[in-house]
């Protein structure tokens, strides 16, 4: 009995021990916690149905018609626009005939073989710009989360787009959709369908032909965002800042001239063999000129307002800055403020030095202005930190090229040309029109012997930056010390 009891007791202890283990504190390394974080970005999309129309009309029935007798059967398009954000969107329209936004016929139906245009006679009195018309109608669709009271078809000085309206000759807001300020502010998916109907006046004397016109619709988010910018390449812009893309349809090496809106300096530009659009002259922006400084802002310069202010006035936003205005480059030793304050030298900006190429005149070109890296980066890289430049003093929509020795844009461009002889039409020096402008520290060095340009790419050394270095028969993606003054080229940012 005693033995049996002992066994029973041992069993009891064992069971209690098991209970104790279950209820004891579990150590952290025996737990696994899963966490899922899902980010849904703002997504706004617009599609069009039946965007190509063909209609055959009989002009004989239109003799003596009035403005109210437009032929309105020439096309009908359904636009579906959806955005998963309460801030909604707006839709803009612009005439786009023959892929042109501007010009005499960009809002006209044009004959493909006769180049005739349909006679202009719009519903709005006094309209002389467009020979065809459009109007918008709301479409109800149960498949779209859609609150009709949040959709507004817009009006302008001519009238509302819910009635016949001439094709706009500039980007014009035609519809706006967003949660209103009343009780319907909780919409999370905003969508709308709009039907656009087109009409044209056809007279009995209209020449027989197939007439073609286009309207481009652009969606912007949020609803009160700025109107779309007409995309321009080198061939349609007049200022550097107007260029929004580098058209691959431009002839390689075709030289265009554009004006910098900040100081009215004129630059030669071209699309080169690497597919990028480049400046063919050295930058000559002088921030020490009071009128130029007054014109510089974040809308015309590739830098933020704070960076531009620091560039022009110095400041405490970057540790260690001297409170000085832009002045001559102060180079030499690491302990000088040549790293931490913007420096330029403009003494020889109009000096002509040896240069071959597309933009040279009698094998000469201007030196331009020398900038230390702090000035070139619009005051954003004013230390010895190895960080790439992301803001600079190039015009808006342009930037400093990247510059490492293998994948940098200077290196890639150089590989596209076979010759190292600057006098050859198949050399980088010739096609980029690189004047032998040298560099600057306490004085100008190398003018007429070699050229040196900054890139946006940092070098492994704490005090250096990659750039382009050229001689009449030599090219290298070289590096320079950040306090040095080097010249600048810019390329279209896209």
Please tell me the total number of domains: 2
Q: Work out the strand percent.
A: 15-25%
Query: What structural category arises from helix and sheet content?
Result: alpha+beta
Lateral strand order in the biggest sheet: 1-2-11-5-9
Poorly predicted runs: 1-23, 63-68, 122-126, 181-185, 316-325
**How large, in whole angstroms, is the Cα Rg?**
33 Å
Number of helices: 6
Span of the ends, CA to CA: 94 Å
> What does the overall shape look like?
globular
List keywords for this structure.
single chain; 494 residues; alpha+beta; 5-stranded antiparallel sheet; 4-stranded antiparallel sheet; 28 strands; 11% helix; disordered N terminus
Structural features, described:
With 494 residues, this protein is of the alpha+beta class. The chain folds into two domains: 44-220; 231-494, no CATH class. It contains six helices and 28 strands. The strands form ten sheets. Strands 1-2-11-5-9 form a five-stranded antiparallel beta sheet, with no helix packed on it. Strands 6-10-3-13 form a four-stranded antiparallel beta sheet, with no helix packed on it. Strands 24, 25, 26 and 27 form a four-stranded antiparallel beta sheet that branches. A hairpin with a 2-residue loop joins strand 7 (155-156) and strand 8 (159-160). The radius of gyration is 33 Å and the shape is globular.
């Amino acid at each position: 009995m005693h033995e049996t009891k002992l066994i029973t007791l041992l069993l009891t202890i064992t069971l209690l021990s098991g209970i104790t283990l279950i209820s004891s504190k579990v150590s952290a390394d025996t737990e696994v916690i899963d966490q899922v974080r899902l980010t849904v970005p703002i997504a706004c999309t617009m599609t069009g149905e039946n965007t190509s129309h063909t209609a055959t009309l009989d002009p004989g029935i239109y003799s003596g018609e009035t403005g109210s007798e437009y032929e309105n059967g020439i096309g009908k398009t359904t636009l579906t626009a959806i955005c998963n954000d309460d801030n909604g969107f707006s839709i803009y329209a612009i005439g786009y005939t023959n892929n042109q936004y501007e010009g005499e016929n960009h809002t006209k139906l044009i004959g493909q073989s006769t180049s005739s245009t349909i006679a202009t006679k719009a519903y709005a009195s006094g309209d002389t710009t467009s020979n065809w018309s459009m109007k918008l109608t709301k479409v109800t669709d149960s498949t779209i989360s859609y609150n009709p009271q949040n959709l507004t078809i817009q009006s302008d000085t001519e009238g509302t787009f819910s009635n016949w309206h001439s094709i706009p000759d500039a980007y014009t807001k035609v519809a706006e959709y967003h949660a209103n300020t009343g009780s319907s502010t909780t919409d999370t998916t905003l969508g709308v369908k709009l039907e656009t109907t087109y009409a044209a006046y056809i007279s009995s004397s209209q020449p027989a032909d197939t007439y073609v016109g286009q309207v481009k619709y652009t969606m912007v988010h949020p609803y009160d965002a700025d109107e779309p910018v007409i995309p321009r390449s080198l061939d349609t812009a007049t200022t550097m800042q107007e260029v929004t893309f580098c058209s691959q349809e431009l002839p390689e090496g075709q030289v265009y001239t554009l004006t910098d809106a900040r100081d009215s300096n004129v630059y030669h530009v071209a699309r080169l063999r690497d597919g990028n659009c480049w400046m063919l002259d050295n930058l000559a922006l002088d921030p020490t000129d009071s009128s130029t400084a007054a014109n510089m802002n974040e809308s015309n310069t590739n830098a933020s307002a704070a960076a531009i202010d620091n560039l022009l006035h110095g400041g405490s936003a970057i540790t260690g800055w001297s409170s000085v205005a832009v002045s001559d480059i102060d180079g030499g030793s690491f302990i000088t403020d040549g790293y931490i304050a913007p420096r330029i030298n403009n003494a020889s900006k109009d000096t002509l030095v040896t240069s071959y190429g597309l933009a040279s005149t009698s094998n000469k070109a201007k030196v331009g202005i020398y900038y230390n890296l702090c000035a070139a980066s619009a005051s954003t890289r004013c230390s010895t930190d190895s960080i790439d430049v992301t803001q600079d003093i190039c015009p808006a929509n342009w930037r400093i090229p990247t510059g490492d020795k293998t994948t940098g844009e200077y290196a890639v461009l150089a590989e596209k040309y076979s010759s190292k002889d600057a006098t050859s039409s198949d050399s980088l020096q010739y096609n980029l029109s690189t004047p032998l402008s040298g560099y600057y520290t306490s004085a100008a060095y190398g003018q007429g012997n070699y050229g040196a340009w900054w890139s946006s790419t940092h070098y492994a050394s704490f005090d250096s930056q990659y750039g382009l270095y050229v001689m009449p028969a030599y090219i290298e993606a070289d590096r320079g010390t950040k306090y040095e003054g080097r010249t600048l080229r810019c390329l279209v940012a896209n």
